[in-house]
Inverse folding.
DNA sequence: AGTAGTTGCGTAAACGCTTACGCAGCAGGA
DNA sequence: TCCTGCTGCGTAAGCGTTTACGCAACTACT
């Protein structure tokens, strides 16, 4: 009967217990290897569970065990095109690690930042999640960090900077922007570039200072910084139009994100500025699709698997070991060179050398 | 005390009931508006719930209510770069609609197809999900469709073809490939294109026949079809290299997916074939990033919001109304014209112009 | 042999909610 | 007045686990 399928009774722990003449408590202990149990009994029970094809009811486990084995991934800022890239790569890295802990991932891709926070707090209050991983983009929201801490939810932030002191139950995995940008700028410098242009999004982004320092340390000059209205190709496109009006025009452009770089490349192309012949371009994040740009984009790579693995390991410390605090860790970035960089033109168009 | 936060007791339905001198049953009835309850009592209770800031424990609700308010999104085939595109756009459309039903979405981005199916069946057996949306790519897996049906899980397939008959508790939202491809080919024909080349992935893809028919109905010719090893830019790149060796070289290329088109464009560029001057190119799916290709790609658009909304509405029929079956619906596609198409060269010589 | 400590397991009370059932109270018709 | 039927609500039995507690049985000492 079709509709009886819908309400088909699943095997419960009790039925397995009865089949073996033991109590449900013993079966539960066998299942988790917790508590005092005879190893022989345990293997006997595990074999029976396997044989009968038992699968625990996750809600019952969560209710009685006071944990849900679910974590949420949340990020600051709105999701537009962004969702398709950085966040998804990261989600995948996180999920990969979570799988080994038998945790599930809840990921909200819809609605604006405000709305998503509301949903998240519902989940927390409803005990639907045991922990949260927040992607700070680009800055940590300290107020919200404390709010989450006050709710008692273990939280790991993936961020560029580490606020001090951290509230309880809060960890930070820091993405080391400095490594990648330094490498990129040194590479460009070695090719002969001295004048840099930066397309960024947020004036408070810690990356800005990192980039400036790196440029100064190679005796280069940051000729212009233009800000995009948002972290999208279209933001990058418009910002580049701004940049094109400034003089002198730099020989190397740094796009804060690959998403911006898509728009930068488009704008340059539209104005007949050839990449990398007339200008070099470097992006950040190394999204999978940037190597398919024309020309393929040089970009600063984040190891998403490692990032996810670190964040998850830290979160598990907070959740499972009930660690009250945990030391921040740092994940490096590195340059991936592709065809969008080349030595600068010996003869920059606008300023003719004598 | 920090660690007491972790185990902070949340407000329960009982406490609210006591505060008002009613029973928990009445509060529960007020909360859901189900069962026999005095409207006056109900508003009084709702006010109190609001005032005390009550949030239900989702696990308790799921356990007692025998439903989880979670659905899973699953897809056939492996996730590589694919995850960043079609699937995510769709996930977003689905999530948008699910939100209005207060359902959550579980999305597994990691592991191969086999592994993910295993996980999904665990979730089903563990009562973690009430329904599944499966993206068939490109063909419905009829055996698995029946397997899911036999497990009693309401399932909606997003597919290009509708198998008949459908097993119980199964719905299909069909993506009408014909509409978009027909429009694209007619558009190209109107520009003067007669010779077409197709870059596809799966020989069993229903799209192939649709495309052939459309080409024949405009008296065009499908000069060549090449198959990529997988649905990625790199697959498209290599397939295009194959295509470049064939003669006559078509004046218009059809990429089965935008992801392939990224690789196609790269290959053409590498061989000095200019888009759209030397050849026109149309993709399918209208991924957000394809409009930032150089030149921006003409593509066949899927309305992901509508697709998600239809799939969710259908799934809710199956879950909430316990409908044993539901009629398939169809979602159209349409061409979005950008710079990658132009009239064919008057002199289709592959040789270099003097 | 008596005591103390350990081990393995069963009993039963949670966990926080939903809902079948039944019982008053009341209205309306005979 | 009695019976019937409906309404609004409380009682209590689940839902399927986990786990604190306690009790035998056993070991290892004195």
């Amino acid at each position: 009967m079709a509709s009886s399928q819908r309400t088909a009774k699943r095997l419960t722990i009790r039925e397995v217990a009865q089949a073996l003449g033991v109590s449900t408590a013993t079966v539960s202990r066998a299942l988790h290897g917790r508590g005092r149990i005879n190893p022989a009994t345990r293997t006997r029970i595990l074999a029976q569970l396997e044989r009968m094809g038992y699968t625990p009811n996750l809600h019952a486990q969560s209710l009685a065990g006071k944990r849900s084995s679910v974590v949420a991934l949340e990020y600051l800022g709105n999701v537009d095109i962004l969702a398709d890239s950085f966040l998804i790569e990261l989600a995948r890295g996180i999920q990969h690690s979570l799988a080994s802990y038998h945790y599930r991932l809840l990921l909200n891709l819809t609605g604006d930042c405000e709305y998503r926070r509301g949903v998240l707090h519902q989940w927390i209050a409803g005990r639907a999640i045991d922990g949260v991983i927040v992607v700070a983009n680009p800055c940590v929201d300290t107020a919200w960090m404390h709010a989450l801490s006050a709710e008692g939810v273990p939280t790991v932030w993936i961020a560029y900077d580490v606020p001090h002191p951290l509230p309880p139950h809060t960890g930070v995995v820091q993405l080391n922007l400095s490594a990648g940008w330094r490498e990129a700028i040194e590479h460009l410098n070695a090719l002969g570039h001295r004048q840099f242009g930066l397309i960024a999004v947020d004036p408070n982004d810690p990356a800005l200072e990192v980039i400036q320092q790196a440029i100064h340390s190679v005796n280069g000059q940051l000729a212009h910084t233009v800000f995009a209205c948002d972290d999208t190709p279209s933001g990058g496109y418009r910002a580049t139009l701004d940049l094109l009006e400034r003089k002198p025009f730099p020989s190397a452009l740094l796009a804060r994100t690959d998403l911006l770089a898509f728009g930068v490349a488009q704008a340059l192309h539209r104005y007949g500025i050839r990449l990398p012949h007339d200008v070099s371009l470097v992006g950040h994040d190394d999204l999978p699709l940037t190597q398919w740009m024309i020309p393929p984009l040089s970009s600063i790579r984040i190891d998403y698997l490692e990032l996810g693995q670190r964040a998850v390991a830290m979160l598990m410390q907070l959740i499972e070991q009930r660690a009250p605090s945990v030391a921040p860790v740092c994940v490096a970035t590195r340059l991936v060179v592709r065809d969008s960089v080349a030595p600068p033109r010996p003869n920059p168009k606008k300023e003719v050398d004598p």
Summary: Residues 10, 12-14, 24-25, 28-29, 32, 34-35, 56-57, 59-66 of chain A lie near DNA strand D (CB under 10 Å from a C1'). Chain A has three domains: 2-56, 70-177+303-333, 179-301.
